[in-house]
Design goal:
Shape: elongated
Number of helices: 13
Strand content: 15-25%
CATH class of the largest domain: Alpha Beta
Largest sheet: 7 strands, mixed
Oligomer: single chain
Order of helices and strands: HHHHHEEHEHEHEHEEHHEHEHEE
Helix content: 40-55%
Length: about 300
């Protein structure tokens, strides 16, 4: 890794932003070879200093003092050493919400934003029962899925569960910061009795652990993401999807919708696992064309 450059002499927003991108490019890490990636990271680091848009900052001739630049230099150093920028600043954007993401939770990803969209579209397709819906987010982590659903459908009742106390602490904090009311519960998604006790739902959504333990991940994922939220035994890649389908007879209302994000290599297997008499099951592909999720609509 190249030595981190000294602080920029010119402290205007445009100059500092350029310095961040040039520092990333000169780090020697292939992650920062693309201009788009460098620009996105620079945007996130600059937003941590001042959340206003670049155009506004340039219009008001924003300048950064030495303390701000020193903080930025420290953050940039951590990113150049391989730490995800979301961990460095402590937050990320998810469907228009600023969501805190400590090391105890999976960093929310754009693909999961699409999963939320597929879930909402599925709920609209079958929406017939009057009144608010009751929906469940399994393995909530940062709470990003549950909170985005609540923000976009404020009249719905949203329940979110996770086995991790630390993850629920982050999710609750996010809910308080965003002033969004979600019912948070510490529950093991693999405990059928405890899951049934949550009662019936009109919709269920999940981004469960789905990566086989033997799969090699990029260092910035392997070293900075909680294994509890990532991995399943090699011998049981469908572990959580099997638990979800077992809930359907007792916990998913007729006409209800269930959507789960999947490993691209196992999406078809999940769809086969979810085949129930009278239910409609669809494979869903993300913007890159990869099969990313499965949606079930109960008859």
């Amino acid at each position: 890794m190249a030595h981190l450059r000294s602080l920029p002499a010119n402290n205007t927003d445009r100059s500092v932003r350029r310095w961040v991108k040039e520092t990333l490019k000169s780090s020697g890490d292939s992650m920062f070879a693309e201009e788009r990636e460098c620009a996105a990271i620079a945007e996130r680091l600059m937003a941590d200093l001042d959340p206003r848009s670049r155009l506004v900052l340039e219009a008001v001739e924003r300048r950064y003092d030495e303390g701000e630049l020193t903080k930025l230099q420290g953050s940039l150093s951590r990113v150049c050493k391989g730490e995800p920028v979301q961990r460095v600043v402590g937050w990320t954007e998810f469907r228009g919400l600023r969501v805190g993401c400590s090391g105890d939770v999976l960093i929310p990803r754009p693909e999961t934003e699409e999963v939320v969209q597929w879930f909402l579209e599925g709920m609209e397709m079958v929406e017939a029962k009057p009144g608010p819906k009751r929906v469940l987010d399994i393995g909530t982590g940062s709470g990003c899925v549950a909170l985005s659903i609540k923000a976009e459908r404020p009249h719905w009742d949203v329940v979110a569960v996770d086995i991790s106390e630390a993850a629920l602490s982050q999710a609750k904090a996010n809910g308080e910061c965003l002033n969004l009311e979600v019912e948070w519960k510490q529950v093991d998604a693999l405990n059928a009795e405890d899951m049934r006790a949550l009662g019936p739902f009109d919709g269920v959504v999940s981004n469960p652990p789905y990566i086989p333990q033997s799969e090699t991940l990029e260092p910035h994922v392997q070293d900075h993401e909680p294994g509890l939220a990532l991995f399943v035994p090699d011998s049981e890649p469908l572990l959580f999807y099997e638990a979800m389908i077992s809930m359907v007879p007792t916990s998913l209302s007729p006409g209800g919708v269930m959507v789960a994000e999947c490993h691209s290599e196992f999406t078809k297997s999940v769809a086969d696992c979810w085949k129930l008499e009278g239910a409609q099951v669809h494979l869903l592909s993300d913007l890159q064309g990869a099969e990313r999720a499965v949606r079930l609509v109960r008859s």
